[in-house]
Amino acid sequence: MRFAVISGSREWTEASPPPAIPPRSIEVNDVQAEARRRLSVIKLEEWRVREFVTGVPMPDTVRHLALQIDFAAQAIGRLSPIPADFADDVYWPRVW
Fold first, then answer.
1. pLDDT given for residue 5 in this prediction
2. Cα–Cα distance between 85 and 91 in angstroms, integer?
3. What does the DSSP 8-state code read for residue 50?
4. How far is CA 77 from CA 5, 27, 73, 88, 95, in A?
5. Which of 20, 4, 21, 23 has the alpha carbon at shortest distance from 12?
6. What is the pLDDT of residue 18?
7. For the region Disordered, what residue ranges are annotated (predicted)?
8. Which residues, other chains included, contact 82 with Cβ-Cβ below 8 Å and sequence gap of 6+?
């Protein structure tokens, strides 16, 4: 509430609501960015480089988690509409 002076008199008025900003629609690129973020957390690129340089394959747990993240990103991207909370852990595979 705010106190306003209106044409010489005083009156209590409600503050005008802020202008409504339409919610931004979620796009497939947003889901792919979240998948890239999750893959970077498990350091997938480092495992790939290490595998290329040393010839020792990356651990199966890392490989399977990367596949699961890719599949989840594809599945979430196909939803219509994509949920606003798509980055929530509910939609993504558990990390160990």
1. 63
2. 9
3. H
4. 53, 8, 6, 14, 20
5. 4
6. 74
7. 1-25
8. 26, 27, 28, 30, 31, 76
Question: Partners of 6 in the beta sheet?
Answer: 9
Q: Which H helix or E strand runs over 11?
A: strand 9-13
Tokens of 58: 């990356």
pTM given for the model? 0.73
* 46 phi, psi to nearest 5 deg: -65, -40
CB atoms within 10 A of CB 87: 17
Instruction: Tell me the pLDDT tens digit for each residue of 33-79.
Output: 999 999 999 999 999 999 999 999 999 999 999 999 999 999 999 99
Contacts of 72 (CB under 8 A, 6+ apart): 35, 91, 92, 93
| Structure tokens that stand for 32 in this block | 């792919």
Residues β-bridged to residue 66: none
